[in-house]
Design a protein that fits this description.
Distance between the termini: 118 Å
Number of strands: 26
Shape: elongated
Oligomer: single chain
Largest sheet: 17 strands, mixed
Number of helices: 23
């Protein structure tokens, strides 16, 4: 027996899956239930009622109480039982002509002399021997077939690989259907539909008397105010509480995961089609054998059991008292199975003729105005087709959570409520340039409170896919710099006018060129433009828009994978003063168009796979700084051509493959900074020491063994880095460079640090770590500006210094005493 709670649970489970049951599955399920109930009823009826009744039809050898016996010859008698019985009698074999005779008419009413128990015995024997199997067992067979059909109806709901996905979908559909965000999103879209708004305005106008309808400017402004107030009310109404907002955010994530989980296979579709094919095959099998037995079910049967010695009779006439009911039941069963089969064939036809592996939300996109709802495929598409057979409204409401635009709007409606002016103030800080900067990361849009920050100078937006600057940006009168990092932005016309007047620096990071806002090419006052992203697709250069309107552009930075300079740069070639190109390892080819950059003072070409210094650079006569970092330069034999660059003060050839530098480097008379680190230098040319104005020299990470004595000629040298080489000793002349403020000798093979290091009275930074030193000279204390924070050395070496010397980092009077002592000794 089932308890009421269990029955309720079964009903609840059936209702749980009904959303995925099309009309044909529902009808087939009801037909199976009718077949099941009728087979149970027929089986119970056959068990409760008598199955058969039999009477003897002939006289055998009757042994009476007397010793005499009569033998009557057998003839073909005529009974009123029908032609079937007569035919059976005519075909009956004659066992013995001596033992059987047909009684005369006067003897037909003689007693059979059989008692009740013998009749019962005969009935049971004849029921098993004479009756065909379908008369006895067909109701039970029909019951078993009905159970099989019932199980096959819902097999795809129970199969583990399909049931889990189905349960997830039903759960998500229910939550999406009932989510407050679904209603709000559709309501906002309906309100924003211009057709609906026009109809509302028209209706509101028709309700007013004609005498009061005036088409003047004041009426129009009143209408606009009413419309704006209604919109604001609509926006405020869409702000969800925290619980509903969290639930909607979770639903978006669950839908994304479920889509990825179901679009990679066709397990559900295959399972459903397989069970439909099985049901159709089962229908043909049932119809095939039941149609042949309908006519074979009869009321009368002839039974000839081999029990004549027990009863004295060889042939019995039996009637099947349930034959009529069995025949009716078989006809009803065939009718139900035929209806079941026809519907199954239709379901199979629908499964193979409809594009069930693709599902389009085209109508939903038109109705909801969410144009970014993606079409789906495979099992996800099949499940949505099944849901549409139940009610298409489920798919429409479910599609809201497949739209990225809808998710962004979900964040937006709660954005202003969460990001207040006070909260934004906490994220404002001063950058390295001392400007007030606000950095926003992965927000669905700009909070309105941002536009109230009139003192904000730098605004940085990162990973914000839907940014729009409204007219309220005009309140940000101090903003001069804007960063759009993977955040394509739209700008209203009035906001663009403000940007054209006051925006000076713009940083744009993108993944595709179309993400670069077109309005940036109209900023007439822009001075710095930083572009970072791919400009190369399938070895084809993607052109940039024209820079003609960027009349005040001075600095251009491109971080990309270009293989030639964009042609649009020629529009601003004459006005550029600084250009930086950072490639990702793509070889950059130079053309003569760069000759027009006559006012360029700083050029950086990083990671461009240059093998030599491009000749076009030597025509940039105004160049002051040249940086060729991280290229493949192996030869600088043309370095003498730098004589034409009479303003060049900084040369960076670091992170290349340069084995040697020619002495002609001395032609760069005014060079102040030279960076040759991370190359393959084994020595330093004497030409370097002819650069009398050299202030910074960096030759770290090379293979230098000896530092020439001529280094003492660099009297203006303030910063020297020779770290990560193989120096074994230092020339005393090095310490003639008394203007040195920073000396880096780390990671060499130095054994002794000369005492002349005390001559470097202006030294503020000294790095000796990673050498083979055993001790340090006490004269190092004469470096009065050297503090412990700028003195980098192993602890054990530091401890070798006298305690008085160690105090010099904290006691400045000690330095004065040491100086006086050295002076007296001299």
């Amino acid at each position: 027996m089932f308890t009421s709670s269990e029955v309720a649970l079964l009903n609840e489970t059936g209702a749980h899956y009904k959303i995925l049951k099309p009309w044909w599955d529902v009808i087939m399920e009801h037909l199976v239930m009718v077949m099941l109930m009728s087979s149970v009823f027929m089986g119970a009826l056959m068990m409760l009622k008598d199955k058969v009744v039999c009477l003897p039809m002939d006289y055998g050898n009757i042994t009476s109480g007397s010793s005499k016996s009569e033998s009557v010859p057998v003839q073909n008698p005529t009974f009123s039982s029908g032609s079937a019985t007569q035919t059976a009698l005519q075909a009956m074999p004659i066992e013995s002509t001596k033992a059987t005779t047909v009684p005369p008419p006067s003897q037909l009413g003689r007693q059979t002399k059989l008692d009740l128990q013998q009749y019962i015995y005969i009935s049971h024997v004849c029921y098993q021997k004479a009756f065909p199997w379908y008369c006895k067992y067909f109701p039970y067979l029909a019951l078993m077939q009905s159970v099989i059909l019932m199980l096959s109806n819902n097999f795809w709901f129970k199969y583990p690989k399909t049931s889990s996905k189905i349960e997830h979908l039903i759960t998500i559909l229910g939550k999406c259907f009932e989510s407050p965000w679904t209603t709000n999103a559709l309501a906002v879209r309906a309100w924003q539909d211009p057709k609906i708004n026009k109809s509302k305005i028209k209706l509101s106008t028709e309700e007013k008397p004609e005498s009061k309808v005036k088409h003047d400017s004041s009426t129009a402004s009143n209408c606009d105010m009413q419309f704006d107030s209604s919109t604001s009310k609509m926006t405020s109404a869409t702000i969800l509480d925290k619980k509903d907002w969290e639930q909607a955010k979770t639903l978006f994530e669950r839908v994304r995961i479920f889509r990825a989980h179901t679009e990679d296979g066709n397990v559900i579709y295959t399972c459903y089609v397989g069970q439909t094919v099985f049901k159709v095959l089962k229908f043909f099998i049932i119809i095939g054998y039941t149609s042949t037995i309908v006519g074979a079910i009869t009321f009368e049967h002839i039974c000839m059991p081999s029990i004549q010695t027990l009863t004295g009779w060889s042939t019995f006439f039996c009637i099947h008292n349930m034959a009529f009911m069995a025949k009716i039941f078989v006809l009803i069963y065939i009718t139900l199975v035929s209806m079941y089969g026809m519907i199954g064939i239709y379901a199979l036809f629908w499964s193979f003729t409809q594009p069930l592996k693709d599902y389009s939300f085209e109508k939903v996109r038109e109705e909801t105005k969410f144009t970014d709802i993606p079409d789906v495929k495979n099992d996800f598409a099949f499940l949505l087709h099944m849901v549409d057979q139940y009610d298409p409204l489920f798919s429409k409401r479910f599609a809201i959570f497949m739209s990225e635009d809808s998710e962004i709007r979900l964040w937006k409606v709660n954005l202003d409520h969460e990001w207040t002016y006070e909260k934004l103030k906490q994220y404002v800080s001063r950058n390295t340039s001392g400007q007030l900067e606000l950095q926003l990361f992965m927000l669905p849009g700009l909070p309105k409170a941002v536009f109230d920050m009139s003192d904000l100078e730098v605004l940085s937006l990162e990973f914000m896919p839907d940014v729009k600057f409204p007219d309220m940006v005009s309140q940000m009168v101090s903003m001069k710099e804007l960063h759009l990092l993977y955040s394509p932005a739209k700008v209203d016309q009035n906001a663009l006018s403000l940007f054209k007047k006051q925006l000076l620096v713009l940083h744009v990071k993108f993944t595709k060129v179309r993400e670069i806002p077109l309005w940036i090419y109209t900023l007439k006052t822009l001075r710095e433009l930083h572009l970072s992203g791919s400009l190369n697709s399938e070895n084809k250069m993607i052109p940039l828009e024209s820079f003609k309107e960027l009349r005040n552009l001075k600095i251009l930075v491109i971080k990309s994978n270009i293989f030639k300079i964009p042609s649009s740069i020629n529009d601003v070639a004459l006005q550029l003063t600084k250009m930086i190109i950072e490639n990702d390892g793509t070889k950059l080819v130079f053309t003569n168009s760069l000759k027009n950059m006559v006012n360029l003072s700083e050029l950086q070409l990083e990671n461009c796979k240059l093998e030599q210094i491009p000749k076009v650079i030597f025509s940039m006569t105004s160049l002051q700084k040249l940086d060729l970092k991280s290229n493949a330069i192996w030869s600088v034999k043309d370095i003498s051509n730098f004589i034409y660059l009479k303003r060049l003060t900084c040369l960076r050839l670091w992170h290349n493959n340069i084995p040697s530098v020619p002495n002609t480097i001395s032609n760069i008379k005014i060079l102040e900074q030279l960076f040759l680190s991370n190359n393959k230098l084994t020595d330093l040319p004497s030409g370097i020491f002819m650069l009398k104005k050299l202030i910074i020299l960096d030759v770290s990470n090379n293979l230098i063994k000896i530092l020439p004595e001529e280094i003492g000629q660099l009297e203006a040298l303030q910063n020297l880095t020779i770290s990560d080489n193989i120096l074994a000793a230092l020339p005393v002349q090095l310490f003639n460079c008394v203007r040195l403020k920073s000396l880096n000798l780390s990671n060499n093979n130095l054994i002794v640090l000369p005492a002349e290091v005390g001559w470097l009275t202006q030294l503020m930074h000294l790095d000796l770590k990673g050498n083979c030193l055993d001790s340090l000279p006490w004269q190092i204390a004469c470096c009065s500006l050297l503090k412990k924070s700028g003195f980098i050395v192993e602890d054990y070496l530091y401890e070798t210094l006298p305690s008085e010397v160690q105090k010099q980092f904290s006691d400045t009077s000690f330095v004065t005493t040491i100086r006086n002592a050295i002076t007296e000794s001299k």
